[in-house]
Write a structure and sequence with these properties.
Length: 260
Amino acid sequence: MTAAQPDDLVRYEAADGVAELTLNRPSEANAIDLETAHALKTNVERAASDDSVNVVLLLGAGQRFCGGGDLAAMAASADRSDYLAELAGTAHDAIRALDTVAKPVVAGVQGAAAGIGLSLVLGADLVVAGASAKFVTAYTSVGLTPDGGQSWLLPRIVGQRRALELILTSAPLTATRAEEWGIVSTVCDDDDVVATARQAAASLAARPAQALGAARSLVRQSWDRPLNEQLDVEAASISYAVGTPESTALVDRFVTKRYP
């Protein structure tokens, strides 16, 4: 039997500055097994190193964005603990790659984002969700604990009390409530998720690429620095940015229009 290739499990398509990464196991609700975790990491790194790509767009094929980790694959393994250790480690490499890519990440969510599928959503910068989409932590319902950075990402977005409520109860969150809590950026009709997410990605891809990538990194890395250190990093970043061809052209254009 031929092993599945990265582009079979996670489709990669790049055009007009946007790399679309589509989880492609629709018959399994795009659940993440070991091979899919490897494929996701490979394709995130591919997008990160592609100079023609300014934005990463995460999508899921079929009716659901991602149903979480593949419990059937875990249950079929000879040693469930070893399998989950390897799966979590590989999936976490993909999460790290998404976190550190110097390009905005947009997610388009339909159906359900559960378990590590929710973690992928939490790791994106802009999230478009269909009106009937559901967001659920899921782990504790099957006696497991969060992975994919969920215990770190979720409280930073919704606050500790709400994060614990979602994790301890596994109660599903509607798209509307997820928008109210800051997990989702935009709610649209279910049939418009892909088009709306693509439009959001295209709008970002048309903006200054170096500035957006650096700004994303500044915000994400700020959690690990005190304000005094962050101010120094911001000063170094903006002084570098102003000397780039991108900024030089845009500043000169602004000045010419403002002060002809």
